User: What shape does this take?
Amino acid sequence: MGIQNPSFRRKKYLKFLGGSAVGLAGLLAVWIVGGNYIASVQEKEIEQDLAAYAQRFPKTEPNDAALKLGPSLAKVGLVDWGSFSQELNQYLDAEIAKPNDTVNPPPEKLQRYLASKQTALAKLRQQVLINNEVPHWGTDITWILEGDMTAPLPAYLWQVNFQKLLALDILEKYRKGQTEAAAEMLEVSWKINQPLTESPLLISQLVGLIVTKYPAGVMRKVDRLPAQWQQRLLERDYRESVLTSLQGEYLSKFKFSQDFAWKYSWSSILEASDPFSGLGILSLFQTETNYPPTLKDKILDWTLSHVLVWFKPVIKPYVRFCAIDTYHAYKRSLAASRQQNFCASDSAPAKDFAWWNYIGRTSTNLPSQTSKAAKSMLDLELTQKILQVKALAAQTGKWPASVPDMKSSICPGSKWLYRVAPDGTMSISFSEKPKWLEERLKYKGLPFTYSDKTPPQLKNRTSTRPKR
Assistant: This one.
């Protein structure tokens, strides 16, 4: 048996390597060209959704009502908010948590602060009531359409703080018997919050839901509100509003992932990521990250981020396929959320990502936000029932023996139970006890029941004596 020449074996080995390299290059070329072509075909349906979303929410500028309201809001001023915010939060949480119409006096510190704002609040009230137009601060969803994760989000903290101040003012006016002025400030509160609930931005929707509990909680205390409030409380489907804003979030994530592998450098990855997490790519895709990041997190993050930057042409088809699969999985979850009875379960519908879709499987679980909207609507529904019962009682001077239309439109098969006890106390409760109720009440939500002994007709309308 002959011995092969070493140079011959070396040439044969090099020939094998060369052939393998050519084959690998061919496979990569097929993957890059073919993968991008297939992805571009599959993306057309999503791009149609994107175009429809853009057409639905064109760019708008602040309207005249908002431009006029701005200076009035500035005159109210919240620059000294930190000096009394803790006391105000404690007072409001305690008052709206009561399942009845009693209102205790606020601490003297809050009374003095509120007194210092009365002139500015009176001018604001007059301006909002005279101008029937709802103030809109403008809409610009360019960052959603472009998937720009570096775009700054609007600051809404002032809205939350301002609504708390209005809630304090309304409670104090009602406590002193100034029912008409209290009702007018409720109108101001509702109108200023309305643009948030009509916005296509998810952050606006969530802030609007947070804020809504204050006027809703205050309304339960107030007697003889105009009948239009009952309609207002039920006319908007906040679940649908949140689902619409979630679609915008998912479209933005799609555009971000679709263009990510080509347009983003390592430095822009860091810019787009959460600066407080200390991570780059992980903070953009993972639901939860450690803070501070562990050594393992840092190594994984560095590896993934640099692989995406260094091997963009090879990675791009995979990222695009992940973006397509993720969007369709999210879209199916939105459809499932529309059919969900959240009184039975407030868990987010499961998302069926493909097994190979790492980006989708580690993405943030946003559809659970729809349960927040449903719970807020249930709060508003109870508030409407309270106003309905009070309106009937105001006509006769006594609590009605029965109340029509007590079925829940939020929770199919459930209803609100109305009773009048032998001592004359009326009460409203829910026929079901959702599993999430106890946990929610821990987080200072509105009570799920209501009771009142004295009908509105028998209460003094103009007395300045505090309610007891």
About this structure: The first strand starts at residue 416 and ends at 420.
